[in-house]
């Protein structure tokens, strides 16, 4: 179910972010947050609903979204709304992988 929600957010987010970026004249407007929603949902995919894991997922996603490790930073160069949304999906993938490793090894419960 969450995979469908992520797909819906991305399907709506890319054209919406494109329209808003064009409308306000900024490449990646800070007030567009649907990309953050998509990336955060991706990080929390398969996450248990307990506060420790949710907090860890939130922190991991934000950290990867800020740092933008390779190749996430290069995804920003994709055109318009695609670049706005897909770079956060890249950060979300990093967050997902690290969170799942932390859960697997019992570092986060």
Structure overview:
This protein is mostly helical. The chain has one domain. It is built from five helices and no strands. Helix 1 runs antiparallel to helix 2 and helix 1 runs antiparallel to helix 5.
Could you give the order of the helices and strands?
HHHHH
Beta-strand segment tally: 0
**Helical residues, percent:** over 70%
Radius of gyration: 14 Å
Structural class: mainly alpha
> Helix tally?
5
SSE layout and pairing:
Layout: H1 2-24, H2 34-43, H3 51-67, H4 72-75, H5 80-104
Helix pairs in contact: 1-2, 1-5, 2-5, 3-5
Please describe the structure with a list of short key phrases separated by commas or semicolons.
5 helices; elongated; mainly alpha
Brief sketch in words of this structure:
The protein is mainly α and 109 residues long. Helix content is 72%, strand content 0%.
């Amino acid at each position: 179910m969450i995979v469908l929600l992520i797909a819906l957010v991305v399907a709506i987010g890319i054209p919406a972010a494109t329209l808003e970026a064009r409308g306000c004249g900024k490449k990646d407007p800070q007030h567009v947050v649907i990309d953050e929603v998509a990336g955060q949902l991706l990080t929390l995919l398969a996450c248990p609903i307990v506060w420790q894991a949710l907090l860890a997922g939130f922190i991991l996603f934000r950290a990867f979204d800020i740092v933008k490790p390779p190749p996430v930073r290069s995804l920003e160069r994709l055109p318009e709304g695609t670049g706005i949304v897909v770079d956060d999906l890249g950060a979300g993938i990093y967050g997902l992988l690290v969170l799942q490793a932390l859960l697997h090894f019992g570092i986060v419960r």
